[in-house]
Amino acid sequence: MARVAIVGSCITRDLWPLRELAPPDLLYISRTSLISLTAPPVRGYRPQPDPPEGLTRYQHAAVETDLCKTGLAQLVAHRPSHIIFDFIDERFDLLRLPDGAVATHSWELEAGGYLADPAFEAARTIPRLTDACDRQWRAACVRLAMILGATPLRSARLILHSARWADQQQGAGGPEPLQGEPQILPGRPADLSAHNALLARYEQWFTSAVPGVEVICAVAAHRLADPRHRWGLSPFHYVEPYYADIREALAARGV
Prior knowledge:
Layout: E1 4-8, H1 10-13, E2 27-30, H2 34-37, H3 57-68, H4 71-78, E3 82-85, E4 94-96, E5 102-104, H5 107-111, E6 124-126, H6 131-150, E7 157-161, E8 168-171, E9 174-177, E10 183-185, E11 188-189, H7 192-209, E12 214-216, H8 240-251
Parallel strand pairs: 1-2, 1-3, 3-7, 7-12
Antiparallel strand pairs: 4-5, 4-6, 8-9, 10-11
Helix pairs in contact: 6-7
C-alpha cells in the first residue's frame, strides 16, 4: 500500500477532501518553500504548544515546521513510498535572518503574530519575484537533491504535480474571465502571469536538479477556478474535473 507524503499546497491535499478517502498515514508539509525547507532553523524561536488565536492546530503546526525546520526529518521518519511535490505555495515572499535562516512569509505567519517574536527583529524580506530569490531557489533544488539521495528518501517515487494559476473560472455557460484581482496576502495584489512564469521556471529547475521526477498535470481545459470551491474563489482552487485528472494520474503510479 502506498505511503504518501505531500510537500506542497492544498491543490494536492484537496485531491482527497474527506479524510477517509485520503491515503492512510498521509504526511502533508505545506506553507514552506524549498529555500526554507532546506535552510537552518530560525535561531531563538521557541516552539509554542498551542496555536495563537485565529489559527487552527494544523496551521500552527505548519508554521512551526517551517520555522524549526522539522519538515525533512518528518519526511525521513515517514518513510514514504511516494512524495508528491507542488509549488503553488511558492508564492510568498521569504524572510532571511542574519545567521542564514529563512522563513516563509505566509498568511499564517503574519496573522498568528509570530513576527512579533524577537527572533525576527533583524529579518529582511526576499521578494519572491526577484533574481535573488530565483538564485536561492535553484540552489535549494541542488540541496534537496543531495538530501533525497543521501537518505532513505532515495527509494521514494518522486512526483511533481505541475500546476498554474487559473486565469478563467467556471461560469454558468462555461469558462469566463477570473473575477477579482489575485492576492498573495490580503490587500497585496499579485501578478498572475508573473507567478505562472515563475512556476514554469521552478518546475524546469526542479526536474533538472532532481533525478527521476515524474511530472503529472491536469487537462488544460480543466484548469478553471471554481467559485463554489470549499475554500472560496482563487486562481488555484479548481473545479472538480481538475482534481479527477490528478487522482487518475496518481492512481496509475500506485497512489
